[in-house]
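A reminder from the course coordinator: this example appears on the midterm review sheet, so study it carefully.

Given structure:
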């Protein structure tokens, strides 16, 4: 028997197995959902369909939040993805599931059921973290309103998986109405959950909420709290500096922007560093140091050539200095990069930095 012929398929299988496991490191797995047979017969929605729609809604919340986190994989048990396909091909599916769970490669796993109670649909989801901690979600909706039930379940599931993500999502919704009550509720509940690694992000966003309500001192207090938890947290340093600069405290603001530059590390968001240089330059310009300001704008543009705010600020400073032709070129560059101002949920730049009139009047 030629042992070499046996070794090649085995090594190929192990290599594929490794790739399949690593593919789902940041996954959320929805394993199973039991649905009454009567409901399936009436609506045609099988458990697989409902699970897929729930996963889609969770993913939609993340996409709309557009926060610091990259898109998290939301998997279903038989989603046909790399893990499922490779596991079936090499007959490794049970092993994949064991290794993914045992080594903490799936941070969250959900399973549950839908039941009918008093002419209402009730979805019960049991969430289990890789650490072994468990949580229970229970939401309800009218018996014929499955979309509403899925929306509520997805909202609560994301709250468990990533509180800052849900807070960012809610902030974007509340920004349109100027009532941040629900955002603050998500933040408070997130802080009460005990996930210490998320708290700095929640306090940072809470500071942005205060800033949007024209409460700069309240905003600074939250940014300070975030930095107490992580003194190298560049977003909170940047935001604290912006709040100081808008109060005309430019020397204090520059000290915060300096902290951003000193603490920024490879892997951090480049737009945070670019924003620090941009704000630093704008403070210098307001202190009458135009050439020093332009030098900071150049640093910002070099750090992140796609960061449109630097060109907007640069144009404003050039225009004030009587250099209209150069200012027009910078304005055109800003519009080319970002015709619509972004609504950030991490940093006080773009639309988030500009207070709407209703807040500015307070």
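Designed residues:
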């Amino acid at each position: 028997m030629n042992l070499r012929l046996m070794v090649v398929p085995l090594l190929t299988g192990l290599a594929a197995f490794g790739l399949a496991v690593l593919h789902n490191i940041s996954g959320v797995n929805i394993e199973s959902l039991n649905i009454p047979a009567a409901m399936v017969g009436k609506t045609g929605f099988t458990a697989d369909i409902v699970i897929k729609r729930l996963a889609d809604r969770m993913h939609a919340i993340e996409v709309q939040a557009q926060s610091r986190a990259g898109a998290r994989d939301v998997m279903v048990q038989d989603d046909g993805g790399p893990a499922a396909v490779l596991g079936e091909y090499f007959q490794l599916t049970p092993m994949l599931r064991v290794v993914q769970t045992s080594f903490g490669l799936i941070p969250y796993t959900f399973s549950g059921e839908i039941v009918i109670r008093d002419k209402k649909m009730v979805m019960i989801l049991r969430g289990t973290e890789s650490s072994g901690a468990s949580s229970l979600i229970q939401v309800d909706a009218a018996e014929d309103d499955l979309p509403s039930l899925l929306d509520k379940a997805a909202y609560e599931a994301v709250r468990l998986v990533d509180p800052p993500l849900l807070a960012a999502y809610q902030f974007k919704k509340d920004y349109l109405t100027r009532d941040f009550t629900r955002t603050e509720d998500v933040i408070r509940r997130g802080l009460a959950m005990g996930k210490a690694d998320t708290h700095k992000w929640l306090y940072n966003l809470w500071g942005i909420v205060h800033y949007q309500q024209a409460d700069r001192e309240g905003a600074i207090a939250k940014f300070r709290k975030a930095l107490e938890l992580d003194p190298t947290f560049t977003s909170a340093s940047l935001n604290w500096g912006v709040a100081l600069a808008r109060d005309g405290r430019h020397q204090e603001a520059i000290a915060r922007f300096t902290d951003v530059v000193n603490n920024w590390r490879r892997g951090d968001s480049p737009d945070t560093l670019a924003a620090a240089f941009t704000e630093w330059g704008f403070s210098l310009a307001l202190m009458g140091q135009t050439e020093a300001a332009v030098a900071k704008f150049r640093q910002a543009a070099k750090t992140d050539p796609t960061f449109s705010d630097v060109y907007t600020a640069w144009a404003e400073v050039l225009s004030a200095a009587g250099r209209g032709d150069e200012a027009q070129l910078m304005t055109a560059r800003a519009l080319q990069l970002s015709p619509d101002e972004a609504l950030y949920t991490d940093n006080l730049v773009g639309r988030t930095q500009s207070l709407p009139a209703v807040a500015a009047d307070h």
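The chain has a mean pLDDT of 81. The radius of gyration is 25 Å.
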